Amino acid sequence: MNDSQHSDCVIIGGVAAGPKCAATLARRRPGATITLFQKEELLSYGTCGLPFFASGDISSLEELLITSYGVARDADFFAKAKSFTAITAAEITTIDREKKTITGRMIHTGETFTHGYDKLVITTGANPTPPPFPVADCPNVRTFTRPADAAYFRRQAEQGKIGKAVVIGGGLIGCEVIQSCADLWGIETTLIEIKNHVLPYVLDDEMAEIVEREIIRHDVKLASGVGVEKIETDGDGNPVVYVTGREPISADYVFLCLGVRPNITLAQSCGLAIGQTGAIEVNEFMQTSDPDIYAGGDCIETVNQLTGRKMYIPMGSMANRHGRVIAEHIAGCARPFPGALGAFLVKVFDLHVGAVGLSEIVANQTGLKTRAAWGSFPDKPDYYPEYKTFSAKMVYDTADGQLLGLQAVGSGDICRRIDAFSTHLHFKSTVDQLLDFEHGYAPPFSEALDPLHHLAGIAKAQRAGFVFANIDHAVKQFGDAFWLDVRETDEVEGQPIPSVAGTDSINALNIPLKEIKDRVSQLDKTRKIVIICKRGVRSYQAAHILKNAGFTDVVIVGGGVQTMQ
Amino acid sequence: MNDSQHSDCVIIGGVAAGPKCAATLARRRPGATITLFQKEELLSYGTCGLPFFASGDISSLEELLITSYGVARDADFFAKAKSFTAITAAEITTIDREKKTITGRMIHTGETFTHGYDKLVITTGANPTPPPFPVADCPNVRTFTRPADAAYFRRQAEQGKIGKAVVIGGGLIGCEVIQSCADLWGIETTLIEIKNHVLPYVLDDEMAEIVEREIIRHDVKLASGVGVEKIETDGDGNPVVYVTGREPISADYVFLCLGVRPNITLAQSCGLAIGQTGAIEVNEFMQTSDPDIYAGGDCIETVNQLTGRKMYIPMGSMANRHGRVIAEHIAGCARPFPGALGAFLVKVFDLHVGAVGLSEIVANQTGLKTRAAWGSFPDKPDYYPEYKTFSAKMVYDTADGQLLGLQAVGSGDICRRIDAFSTHLHFKSTVDQLLDFEHGYAPPFSEALDPLHHLAGIAKAQRAGFVFANIDHAVKQFGDAFWLDVRETDEVEGQPIPSVAGTDSINALNIPLKEIKDRVSQLDKTRKIVIICKRGVRSYQAAHILKNAGFTDVVIVGGGVQTMQ
Predict the structure, then answer these.
(1) Which of B409, B434, B438, B538 to mutate to test the interface with A (most CBs of A within 10 A)?
(2) Which numeric CATH code is attached to A350-460?
(3) Which of A389, A552, A387 is nearest to A465 (CA)?
(4) Which chain A positions have a beta carbon within 8 Å of B174's beta carbon?
(5) Does the interface ipTM go beyond 0.90?
(6) How far is B500 from chain A (nearest CA, A)?
(7) Looking at chain B from residue 192 to 221, which residues have their Cβ under 8 Å from any Cβ of chain A?
(8) Could you read off the pLDDT of A399-417 as tens digits, one per residue?
(9) Residue B370: exposure state from Cβ atoms within 10 A (0-12, 13-18, ≥19)
(10) Could you tell me which CATH number the domain at B467-564 has?
(11) Which architecture characterizes domain A141-257 according to CATH?
(12) Topology match between the domains B141-257 and B467-564
């Protein structure tokens, strides 16, 4: 490569946002010269698929590197099919904003080069967050972010070299990696999370607890609220994880899943503005503080559509959308990027877990005054043979009923609810407007009223003065109140009110809903009464009966005992 | 019952909207007297579940009559748990709007009664559309709308008495009933539809054809575009269906699935306004032309949110929402009903079929100028083992890009796309705004970009001048053009371009996408070129390459050959 190279658009980074931007720009501005530099050998690999390669669900790593029709997404492919130049194993070292050039170095040859640009796009992604504790040098203590990480683990697993694994960090990747270990390979796995619960911030505690029960059910040892002090190696060179206040944990493999942080080295070194989240600051057209330099993907921060605050949300789906906005702005036809709502999904063993918008804890940290509605649902009518269930929590603004967030966890179909709720959030919808949701209905797919309608109904009941609590909250806060179980007697026998960690088991009086009216005189109006059933529907009905009979201190357990299944 | 009875609210009809209204009103206005009259013995039965009882998916009819916790939804249940009075086997014969009374007759005793009301709610539902042809009296020629119909059929099927069945009418119920016949019971089944395609109006022809291929694949004989002349009986008393221009069809059982029409007899007889659709006219609070009389469910017409025109859309999900609006308006706390978008789902054998908004044919009939975008998609990444596929068609307004409708058909997850698109329609979203959709993403559930993003992208390409056609359209209209297949050669061998009924098979030149650039000189610029691939993505990319090479008459086959799988 000689010094005189110049492209209309130069892109640094070749995983998600970069190639998407390049391909889109090549279509919007045919004839434009577009050059993409990628530090690694591989381009456009399906990072998000790595846990499923590690787990064996995906048989070969190649599947993450090819198109759906089996063609490698390499430089040749991008040149011939997508009309842009991709140069791999090329590390960009400096950006000269005055001269509008970048300089770099070919990793294999050491050759250096300079390349001029009219528009520059930084999609340098993210790097694993370095551990805040000392880590001994050991090949089997690694992060899990690159194809090489997944390939290395899988090779070890296939050779039967991993009997015990420790996963440090219970975020999205950590929760996927424990399955990679435990499910196919039968590795004895421990998950360590420093916060009190897995998936912190994105799920509230009581929703995370549902996930944790699933993790434990699959024989993964869960150590939450536990800090790691250091990782050393034993005499055989195997890692030992030292945790606060517990015995050290010996393992054959340790995954460092401590999250990622934006790779801002280049941006910072050329003086681009870095935001308060530590990621590159961009405007709604993904322009950095230098209007000729764009940035997108996991290295930027974005506006939270609900709070207007900046947030860092590294997510492949976002990166692809950033790439398009950048290309279209360069081509002169962009609409602004709307910001993010924080939608995510993750499969944790047999559980589908998802959320969008703000969790209650995050909303409250933001200073919003919120209320939450809980519910448990079948995902289709109970009479339909293949129905599954899930529990959900909806967060909304107490003052005006604006919707703020939805969390959903269960074996049932949560995706459509997350997607529909996400759309409601985007359009600044309210509890009342959620009742206008017209969902697709047929018994093989859904009930006549959608769970979102029921959640809106619960929120309206709350605003009319009914008090709801999640089962965890109710047991912990009102364990000594008078409990009324309005399920049928055979249901109570089949599934007693589950005990919650650190509390006594609950003894509830069982009066099936149909009998409440006739037996209301048996109840004490002066005591707090906590009403529970399977999913919350009957408790709500019973609460009306008690209210009409003059009871004033009634709590409804939203979501009922199904939440604890 | 004596003459002096009076209720604050009287409800006529006890299936969906009626009980929902009664239960909601009892909660909103405790102490109000509410009496519901139901002509049949059964209350609140799951009508939509009947095909699944008929098919054997649901083992007993009772499951459609009980709550999820096993308690019968009978008058006793409603009185004790829901705080309203339900009276069954009570036929209401007249409404006296002056005196604000209804009169009726107890079906078993013949006793007549009068009941006064402050507010009256008409939820009289719908009746099967009577056949427009003569039908001989035969117990095995019946409609399929009541529990008795389903129970009768299933008894006959269980006893092995049905070897051959004819289903007349390829609407939603007809499409469910053919499965009830063919799937479990192995009955030789013929489906007759007078229109050219099944699911007319809700699906456009080329989308209906996908459903028809599935029907035929499951050995159901499909006779579409075929009128029934009469149904007679043979010497053994078995039905014979006479159809225009074909041999008569002998059968053991004939289902009349000709749709339903609103039951407006009572409303009409007391002079309430009937709308242009033939259903009861109501305002946005579900009030009829008499403000003290409400109506909801399958007997009313509703406003189409997209066209502002009145439509008749009998649907259990709507009925439930009507019931709530009526109750809340009576209680003084209602928001208006927003009208309908026409969302529906139906399972046709292994195919999931759904739509929301306007089909292209309906939109054009309404006078809208529309364009359609087609696509075929995996519902998760191709590398994820359990992915399934579907094809979709999006209709939007040519002038301003307003979204008008989505149709989706395939084995993959269409529900979440229908629900999200429905929400976009409700908020009057456009093609551009659809690109802002933030879907939940994780490989076990979805791709980084959602099919809705791709459809929006296709629509934007159309507006930029690219021409797309569905494969059926392309084969029929451009069969003699020059076809270019840009798939890999092994794909072409594995799945040649399917032939379309009534056309010659297509001979396309195969140049894989990656080779187009180098071989573009082999192509003739003066001819129309139709580009095809598996899902449309590569064709779109190839179209850009040709356009940049100066080709001006290029058609992209949207959705590719996957549409025909």
Answers:
(1) B438
(2) 3.30.390.30
(3) A552
(4) none
(5) yes
(6) 24
(7) none
(8) 999 999 999 999 999 999 9
(9) buried
(10) 3.40.250.10
(11) 3-Layer(bba) Sandwich (3.50)
(12) no
